[in-house]
């Protein structure tokens, strides 16, 4: 059976194995020469490919009973329903929650919000599995919001000999920072413990269009307007079609009438102009739980466009103006391939292999049409353009970088290689992706 990612642009190498328990998973790992974990299948490259066993731990994931689940006829982008794993464990004293790594963020935040808690940050897609999002350095948006992995305080990892190792931020400090963004190289992350915060509401308002030159001049101010801010452009005109402002809701908070002269849209819109916005989260300034507003897309619907290929570069925030000017300069070459391009901000973190390692960043994210050859042809241009600004690609998107440049950009890379040797001395979890970009 061919196993594809959610967007259909990549077929995974390896034989899919779906153990029904941790014991079964340990047995698969212990008797396999090569193993990789496969999660919600939202990466666009070969990061999860395996030379032998491709292990899915979906059977251990928690599924919230009130979130629509789909059977074997699930549309692309929606995980098929599987037997539900145990409920997350919320510690009322610390506010930390332990959850199976294969659990989707949508299911976890619904569980938390029913208990008066939530997560401080979410990606634009709530469909992602927790462990996979952490392993690839996935992020949301907001000048004060670091990667999703910054909330992690504990990792339980099934290692190559079939034993379980636990790392915590409290006891393992530096090594824990090495393990959060692991690219799947240390083992199968079976459970994660995360910090939570008191539940809060968010109101989302979308503005546009805003002139490109005004965004370049006012990016710092616009980025600071809300808890999370995203800007979208098709690059087919000198405008950002939409500016998505997500504010922590307070009845006393004033919602801007305009942003950079752009008014609020009077009806719901999609990041891709002309696409039905029914799969987007509620807008028009209507407040709702953070878990239903911080993502751009609804958990029970196909995210984004569906048929697409994504690429993203993370550039030091100090060079945001240069990055936006460079993006404008690319328009004539790549606009025909771009469905939409999102620009957002991410705060620095301490994870060794995070693109935001010890630096605030601006993200330039491309949602391309699903034409692998055409997109592949422009990837060197993206590398030349944003690599020159000290930008690095998102680990889970498509890119064509200089391996030596990429390795040199991560000052703790050699420490990570030592961590790999400690956890996986025989290279059971190594694959071509790791050999190409990390080893």
Automatic annotation (TrEMBL):
PROSITE patterns: FAD_PCMH. Gene3D superfamilies: 3.30.465.10, 3.30.70.2520, 3.30.70.2530, Uridine Diphospho-n-acetylenolpyruvylglucosamine Reductase, domain 2, Vanillyl-alcohol Oxidase, Chain A, domain 4. It comes from the Bacteria. Signal peptide: none annotated. This is D-arabinono-1,4-lactone oxidase. Residues 9-199 form the FAD-binding PCMH-type domain. InterPro entries: ALO_C (IPR007173), FAD-bd_PCMH (IPR016166), FAD-bd_PCMH-like_sf (IPR036318), FAD-bd_PCMH_sub1 (IPR016167), FAD-bd_PCMH_sub2 (IPR016169), FAD_lactone_oxidase-like (IPR010031), Oxid_FAD_bind_N (IPR006094), Vanillyl_alc_oxidase_C-sub2 (IPR016171). The keyword Oxidoreductase applies. The lineage of its organism: Bacteria, Bacillati, Actinomycetota, Actinomycetes, Micrococcales. The keyword Metal-binding does not apply. Keywords: Oxidoreductase. It holds the Pfam family FAD_binding_4. It comes from Georgenia faecalis.
């Amino acid at each position: 059976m061919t196993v594809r990612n959610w967007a259909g642009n990549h077929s995974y190498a390896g034989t899919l194995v779906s153990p029904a328990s941790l014991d079964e998973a340990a047995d698969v790992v212990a008797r396999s020469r090569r193993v990789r974990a496969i999660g919600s299948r939202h990466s666009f490259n070969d990061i999860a490919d395996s030379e032998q066993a491709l292990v899915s731990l979906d059977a251990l994931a928690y599924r919230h009973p009130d979130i629509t689940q789909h059977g074997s006829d699930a549309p692309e982008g929606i995980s098929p329903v599987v037997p539900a794993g145990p409920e997350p464990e919320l510690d009322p004293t610390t506010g930390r929650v332990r959850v199976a790594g294969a659990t989707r963020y949508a299911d976890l935040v619904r569980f938390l919000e029913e208990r008066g808690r939530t997560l401080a940050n979410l990606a634009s897609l709530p469909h992602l599995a927790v462990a996979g999002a952490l392993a690839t350095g996935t992020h949301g948006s907001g000048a004060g919001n670091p990667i999703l992995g910054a909330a992690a305080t504990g990792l339980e990892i099934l290692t190559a000999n079939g034993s379980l190792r636990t790392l915590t931020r409290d006891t393992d400090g530096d090594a824990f920072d090495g393990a959060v963004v692991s690219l799947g190289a240390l083992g199968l992350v079976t459970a994660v413990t995360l910090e939570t915060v008191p539940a809060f509401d968010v109101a989302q308002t979308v503005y546009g269009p805003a002139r490109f030159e005004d965004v370049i001049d006012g990016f710092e101010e616009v980025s600071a307007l809300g808890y999370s801010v995203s800007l979208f452009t098709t690059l087919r005109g000198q405008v950002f079609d939409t500016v998505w402002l997500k504010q922590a809701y307070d009845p006393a908070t004033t919602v801007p009438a305009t942003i950079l002269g752009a008014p609020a849209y009077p009806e719901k819109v999609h990041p891709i102009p002309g696409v039905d916005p029914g799969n987007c989260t509620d807008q028009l300034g209507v407040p709702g739980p953070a878990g239903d507003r911080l993502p751009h897309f609804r958990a029970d619907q196909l995210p984004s466009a569906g048929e697409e290929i994504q690429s993203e570069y993370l550039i030091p925030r100090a060079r945001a103006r240069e990055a936006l000017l460079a993006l404008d300069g690319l328009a004539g070459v790549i606009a025909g391939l771009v469905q939409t391009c999102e620009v957002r901000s991410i705060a620095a973190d301490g994870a060794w292999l995070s693109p935001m390692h010890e630096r605030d960043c601006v993200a330039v994210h491309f949602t391309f049409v699903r034409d692998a050859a055409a997109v592949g042809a422009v990837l060197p241009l993206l590398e030349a353009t944003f690599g020159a600004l000290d930008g690095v690609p998102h680990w889970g998107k498509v890119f064509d970088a200089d391996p030596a440049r990429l390795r040199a950009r991560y000052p703790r890379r050699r420490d990570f290689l030592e961590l790999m040797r400690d956890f996986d001395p025989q290279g059971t979890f190594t694959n071509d992706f790791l050999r190409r970009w990390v080893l």
